[in-house]
Amino acid sequence: ADIHAVSILEMQNKGEEFKLKFDVFEGIFDQVRNTPLAIISIAGPFRKGKSFMLNLLLHYLMEGQSSDVYKDKKAQIRNIFNWRGGVERTTVGIEITNKPIMVKDKSGKRVAVFFMDTQGMFDHKTTGKGCSAIFAMSTLLSSMQIYNLSGHIQEDHLQYLEIFTNYARYAVEQKQHANASTCPFQGLMFLLRNWEMADYQFGQEGRMQLIREKIEIVSSFYKNQLEKVSVILK
């Protein structure tokens, strides 16, 4: 069967409640029970192209990880995660690919890679509690959480991120799944699309200056909570 997206978390009662589909979740991962796996998740404000970005990443892996895959203007990008233009949200809850893309790591070991899409935050239909729950759940489940932003990293982006990750950390502590000596989360990547460089020198030097500043700020916020923080500018 072809790869497609399935829902593992549904929002209910106008965003006030959510339901995790344990049977679907377990069925997906049962097929790779004895295989190392990675989950690439994306989260951020609604209507910022998160689903389309995941489709691009999937296209890259499914076409052999060649740097030439995007040069073919006639290539059809698979619509695995549904997306469309407009102002109304498309993704609701959390969706994940029903089966993995098998890749090899640097040592040659096979790894099962899943992609996870999340409902956009800050729309007029979802409460703050709902946004926190979605971000927290996807961050806890993922190997790498992509924080999808447009333009630049604003102070409120970091404030919201702190609220959401505190929510997730509290959930872990309540369930006693976290060891005091380990990070409750794995990787966080800031993806800045349509980067606005007004306060930075153009080119590689300005890019590296921004990365150093933002990484230092975020790393200080989440010391001992995240294994890795990175920034990508598009």
Automatic annotation (TrEMBL):
Domain GB1/RHD3-type G: 34-234
Source organism (scientific name): Ciona intestinalis
Protein name from the UniProt record: GB1/RHD3-type G domain-containing protein
Family of the protein in this entry: Belongs to the TRAFAC class dynamin-like GTPase superfamily. GB1/RHD3 GTPase family.
Top-level lineage group: Eukaryota
UniProt lineage: Eukaryota, Metazoa, Chordata, Tunicata, Ascidiacea
UniProt keywords, alphabetically: GTP-binding, Nucleotide-binding
GO annotation (BP), single: endoplasmic reticulum organization
GO molecular function: GTP binding; GTPase activity
Pfam families reported for this sequence: GBP
